[in-house]
Amino acid sequence: MNETPGIAVTGASGRMGQMLIREITESDKMHLAAAVERPGHEWIGQDVGTAMGGTELGVTVTDDAAQAFGQVQAVIDFTAPQATLAFAAEAAKAGIVHVIGTTGMSDDEIAQLAPAAKDGAVIVRAGNMSLGVNLLTQLTKQVAAALDVDYDIEIIESHHNQKVDAPSGTALMLGEAAAEGRGVALADVSDRGRDGITGVRKPGDIGFTAIRGGDIVGEHDVMFAAAGERIILRHVASDRALFARGALKAALWGQGKAPGEYDMLDVLGLKG
């Protein structure tokens, strides 16, 4: 009997789902116990290993999240907002760790996670699971706190041409950090669209630019621009596996934690 934590992966057929499955099967600290896909998906009923084009892993893809979550200690979820909310409810019933890497969630959808955290789920949610990005988040907050509105803040993010949401979850996370550093609400200062005669830039706004093209894994710049100088904080991801490894770290960290909502800064001990 395998005594390491059992992990379920939702959206098993997706790019991140398959990456997570590969990382889990190569780990000696956890094991793959369930793979979940949406009802009607062609992988349902197949061994997830052979569905991925490899050898059997002994895990059959299912569309029954409740049943899958009942036999694992954590679920890692990089899917879509509405699916994530449904998974959160099931994770709460099972009393397991729910690691959420889903992006594109609205403030209202994020708020809807609170009941699941209260009812039994250990929710670890972050717009980006990498160590480097979370360090960048902390640096962004500190620099924003040190510089006044004479320094315009712009967040520029680049991703592959298959990404469906913009700005990216990471860009919004960086925007939240900058706003927190300045003691304002991001919703009050966010500038996400410039087209045509927009007028001059409003002092204190935090601007966002999204670039989509090719196979870019993820690049994020936070620019502080003032008269005569620019300060640019940058993170470049060249391997998608780093997001998977961060999510697995979160799944292990959450074991034994009290139900509630956490993020990667908690996981990495960077809260302060």
Automatic annotation (TrEMBL):
Residues 7-129 form the Dihydrodipicolinate reductase N-terminal domain. NAD(+) binds at G11, A12, S13, G14, R15, M16, E37, G101, T102, T103, A126, G127, N128, M129. NADP(+) binds at R38. The active site is at H159, K163. Residues 132-268 form the Dihydrodipicolinate reductase C-terminal domain. It holds the Pfam family DapB_C. One of its GO terms (biological process) is diaminopimelate biosynthetic process. Keywords: Amino-acid biosynthesis, Cytoplasm, Diaminopimelate biosynthesis, Lysine biosynthesis, NAD, NADP, Oxidoreductase. Pathway: Amino-acid biosynthesis; L-lysine biosynthesis via DAP pathway; (S)-tetrahydrodipicolinate from L-aspartate: step 4/4. GO terms for molecular function: 4-hydroxy-tetrahydrodipicolinate reductase; NAD binding; NADP binding; oxidoreductase activity, acting on CH or CH2 groups, NAD or NADP as acceptor. The lineage of its organism: Bacteria, Pseudomonadati, Pseudomonadota, Alphaproteobacteria, Rhodobacterales. (S)-2,3,4,5-tetrahydrodipicolinate binds at H160, G169, T170. This is 4-hydroxy-tetrahydrodipicolinate reductase. Catalyzes the conversion of 4-hydroxy-tetrahydrodipicolinate (HTPA) to tetrahydrodipicolinate. GO terms for cellular component: cytosol. Belongs to the DapB family. InterPro entries: DapB_C (IPR022663), DapB_N (IPR000846), DapB_N_CS (IPR022664), DHDPR_bac (IPR023940), NAD(P)-bd_dom_sf (IPR036291). It catalyses: (S)-2,3,4,5-tetrahydrodipicolinate + NAD(+) + H2O = (2S,4S)-4-hydroxy-2,3,4,5-tetrahydrodipicolinate + NADH + H(+); (S)-2,3,4,5-tetrahydrodipicolinate + NADP(+) + H2O = (2S,4S)-4-hydroxy-2,3,4,5-tetrahydrodipicolinate + NADPH + H(+). Its EC number is 1.17.1.8. It comes from the Bacteria. The gene is dapB. SUPFAM superfamilies: Glyceraldehyde-3-phosphate dehydrogenase-like, C-terminal domain, NAD(P)-binding Rossmann-fold domains. Homotetramer. It is found in: Cytoplasm.
